[in-house]
Specification:
Elements: H1 2-19, H2 23-36, H3 38-61, H4 68-94, H5 101-125, H6 140-146
Length: 148
């Protein structure tokens, strides 16, 4: 028990040394450490899979409008959506030091990957009738220049 307390005090001292004595900065640092932890990422992964399973079950069962089954699936959808809303808010708060630099870097990666996905969807919908080359990919040297 004493060892855990000593480790906890040491972590607190390290956080104070890195982030100062600002309560907001300490909360942000602790939140970022928790958000990046394996446990946190496993929980998010489990909820993603759960959301997929719920959607598949709903598509297979096709509950009638106004039935108890429809209300259950609606409630599950609301709970999963609320979870991901809280998750994105926690991510935003944890990444808000340095003017959201980490969060914006994640958004930039998403932005760069979306055009290729849109191209694939468009090509699939049009049965490849228009053979438009995919968007230009980012070279490794360019990615290093623009990385945060």
């Amino acid at each position: 028990m004493a060892i855990r307390e000593a480790q906890k005090r040491r972590r607190e001292r390290d956080l104070f040394a890195l982030y100062g004595h600002s309560t907001l900065e300490l909360w942000r640092a602790k939140t970022l450490n928790y958000y990046r932890s394996h446990l946190s990422q496993y929980i998010v992964a489990v909820v993603i899979v759960l959301g997929f399973v719920v959607d598949v079950a709903e598509a297979q069962l096709l509950p009638d409008e106004g039935s108890e089954g429809e209300r259950v699936f609606l409630l599950l959808d609301i709970v999963i959506t609320a979870f991901f809303t809280v998750e994105i808010l926690v991510n935003l708060f944890a990444s808000s030091a340095d003017c959201f630099r980490i969060f914006c870097a994640q958004a930039l990666i998403l932005k760069k990957s979306v055009p290729g996905q849109i191209y694939c969807i468009k090509a699939y919908e049009e049965d490849f009738s228009e053979c438009v080359p995919p968007p230009q990919t980012v070279s490794a040297s360019s990615a290093r220049r623009h990385s945060f």
